[in-house]
Amino acid sequence: MFGCKCFRWSKISDLSSREPDTFLLPEPIPQWPQGCSGTGFASGTIKLGELEVHKISKFDFVWSCNLSQDRKQGVSFYKPRVVPDGFFSLGHYCQSNKKPLRGFVLVAREVAKPEAEDHCSGNPCLPALQNPLDYTLVWSSNDGTEENFDGSGYFWLPQPPEGYKALGFIVTTKPVKPELGEVKCVRGDLTDECETYRLILKTSSVLSEVLAIWSIRPRHRGMHGKGISVGTFFCSSYWSTGQELNIACLKNFDTSLQAMPNLDQIHAIIRHYGPTLFFHPRETYLPSSVQWFLDNGAMLYTRGDSVAKPIAPEGSNLPGGGTNDGQCWIDLPSDVRRAIVIFGNLESAKLYVHVKPALGGTFTDLAMWIFCPFNGPATLKVGVVNVPLSKVGQHVGDWEHFTLRVSNFTGELWSIYFSQHSGGEWVDAYDLEFIAGNKAIVYSSKGGHASFPHPGTYIQGSSKLGIGIRNDVARSNLYVDSSTQYEIIAAQYLGHEAVSEPCWLQYMREWGPTIIYDSRKELAKIVNRLPIMVRNSVQSIFDKLPMELFKEEGPTGPKEKNNWFGDERW
């Protein structure tokens, strides 16, 4: 987010002759397998029903606002460079100058309906695309005193005909309204609601009205969400959180999801992009395969039954379905094998892959799950002092994941989601660390196994004060290569016959026992030993830590998590 009290508005002559840096993956995207069951994956266009969309990632610069003489402190606005014949623009693109130019906008065209559908009443009789009736000037950087308007930016909102929606804004450098054919509006029933996502720019100029610019995303996301991001932005000088936006996203009506990869293509995607998961060089609690864990004495406990049961191969005797009702849980072996199983078995470890549609089937998410038999206790950082905690954060069974998001237009790796305890973050491909070709690195934190994109120490608490739970990550000889060590456990969109889901995946209860202990006493002793001047700050941070740190409670499995069907949390 940018904020400022004044701007340097860049004139066209400043930047029009300078191509922005662009990002390319380390290696070219391969030719994906097709075979007899080939689909529309990576074909460049996707059919949505009455519309067909094409992804444009090459742009012409329009205008930039810089916060200083350093161009990288500003944001720039672009329009699609080459729109294929028959397709139409839906709006312009905006991004920060701090990062390489890497984005997209979708252009659309109407496709002929099958004869069986060539009857209608009401809105469906109208064309899918129409010119706007007019444009409304939303904001301008010009205060009315400049003689030369070429250095100013003008933001225009298309005014759609009745029954249609605008999907983006247009930016110009002159106060003259754009041509009506510059963009198209889309019939309302072919659109979906969108919401603001990340704040790109917020001004507080003394020369003009405040302007805020956000990236946008569909409101209805997840595996069953039909909303499609168009790649445009939202801007306003008065909008507040909770208000409905005056632009929309597209909606996919093609239930076949023809742009999603087939099984051969999924394997090729994993082999090409599968990250290497590095564990800390001093990691004690390593991962294992689920099968190794079950084969080496994991036990099933049932509330009210004092006798635990061994778990059958593949987890075939685990109760399946339902919800986590607390009636059953898994625990480590109760015999001498416990001292072995708790530390995992790296040689058997693998990533368990769930493949699902994202953003209306225009992207594929590959959620990669890793299992560890035990999650170690946390280490507290208070300034320069590190305090190993005896119990806080530890529990039997640990399921963690990261998610690859791949464009179904091109097959390009777009971003990776790093799951971090109760939250996480999406990291764009340009900010990833690559180890070989287009394979990224994922770092697993010592003890807690949260995922991070770069080595270092991450604080769960207050990074500014240096107070919180440490998450230490580094490269080592302890790693799992997900491009070879993986198993696809679910891809529902391919049909029930394509991927056989393992029995243990249907187990919706906890993978470890619940043990309540007063770990806050342990933290209270630490707080009381601190200087009085920092005690309140430290206690306030402790109070905000998630409750999962203060008791031992095994996690539920992947299928019980809300992101199994839904989108990632951030």
Automatic annotation (TrEMBL):
InterPro entries: Vps62 (IPR009291). Pfam families: Vps62. It comes from the Eukaryota. PANTHER family: BNAC01G40110D PROTEIN, VACUOLAR PROTEIN SORTING-ASSOCIATED PROTEIN 62. This is Vacuolar protein sorting-associated protein 62. It comes from Solanum bulbocastanum. The lineage of its organism: Eukaryota, Viridiplantae, Streptophyta, Embryophyta, Tracheophyta.
